[in-house]
Amino acid sequence: MKKIVSLILASLMLTVALASCAGTKDAADDKPATSGDAVVSGEEKTVSGTVTTDGSTSMEKVIGALGESFEGENSKATFTYNPTGSSAGITAVAEGRCDIGLASRALKDEEKSQGLKETVLAYDGIAVIVNPENGVDGLTVEQIADIYTGKITNWKDVGGSDAEIVLIGREAGSGTRDGFESITGTEDACKYRQELSSTGDVITTVANNPNAIGYASLASIKDTVKAIEVDGVAPSEDTVKDGTYKVQRPFMLITKTDAQLSDVAQAFFDYITSADANAVISAAGAVPAK
């Protein structure tokens, strides 16, 4: 009898043990997602595809740095930039040939009427540059205007050597030219010796001519030229930000009002206009709008 009872008890204990194991397995199956599942979730949120930008050559350093940073955080995304100039970039986005246009000037009324809108990304100082051999270290806005309109033609009249001033500028439609001329009040009155199609060309030309004067984006200035003071203030991030340096303009992002950006383009737009991008913008030599 005792033997039978013992067998029954052993059988019951085995049944309980098996039920316990099954319960443990079921509970494990019902657990919340593990860290491995979170990775999958994260992958679903990662944007992919190409975001295309087109426009201002003055924005090359800033937008290039932002594009590189964005790609670093989004391995499946690709960023492209076509340096065609502000007006060409505005036209490109209006015609649907790029996601985001880049302009170093505000939109004109006729451009806004095409269904375009602007968002300020950053502010940029327009440096007035001369050859490093030039003894002139500063000019007033009035002197700069007089030089570019032909009222002053010799460096000796502004404290330099006896030499003819060679006027270098940007081509018609350039955002840098538009900004420079509007600030100095020289629209349609400049007597350029050369009108060049990019910021880099202006810098190179001034660097190779001791008597040249030009203007270029502060973010693009190299030590091959000298940026002079304007009204006693040197161009820098601080003086652009506090408004004491007068020759400055906005860096704009141009998009369509009636068209939705692709997921990757929207993610790029959101990133570069957020405070998270400020350090990248500042390192590229511009002043963040936010």
Sequence-ordered SSE layout with sheet pairings:
Blueprint: H1 2-29, H2 35-45, E1 49-55, H3 60-73, E2 77-83, H4 86-94, E3 100-103, H5 109-112, E4 116-130, E5 138-139, H6 141-148, E6 166-170, H7 175-184, E7 194-196, H8 199-207, E8 212-217, E9 226-227, E10 229-230, H9 237-241, E11 248-256, H10 263-272, H11 278-283, E12 287-288
Parallel strand pairs: 1-2, 1-3, 5-10, 6-7, 6-8
Antiparallel strand pairs: 3-11, 4-8, 4-9, 4-11, 4-12
Q: Can you put this structure into words, describing what you see?
A:
This protein is of the alpha/beta class and 290 residues long. It folds into two domains: 48-122 and 249-288, 3-Layer(aba) Sandwich (D-Maltodextrin-Binding Protein, domain 2); 125-248, D-Maltodextrin-Binding Protein, domain 2 (3-Layer(aba) Sandwich), CATH 3.40.190. The chain has eleven helices and twelve strands. The chain has helices at 2-29, 35-45, 60-73, 86-94, 109-112, 141-148, 175-184, 199-207, 237-241, 263-272, 278-283; strands at 49-55, 77-83, 100-103, 116-130, 138-139, 166-170, 194-196, 212-217, 226-227, 229-230, 248-256, 287-288. Strands 1, 2, 3, 4, 6, 7, 8, 9, 11 and 12 form a ten-stranded mixed sheet that branches. A two-stranded parallel sheet has the order 5-10. Helix 3 links the parallel strand 1 and strand 2. It is elongated, with a radius of gyration of 31 Å. Residues 1-10 and 14-44 have low confidence and may be disordered.
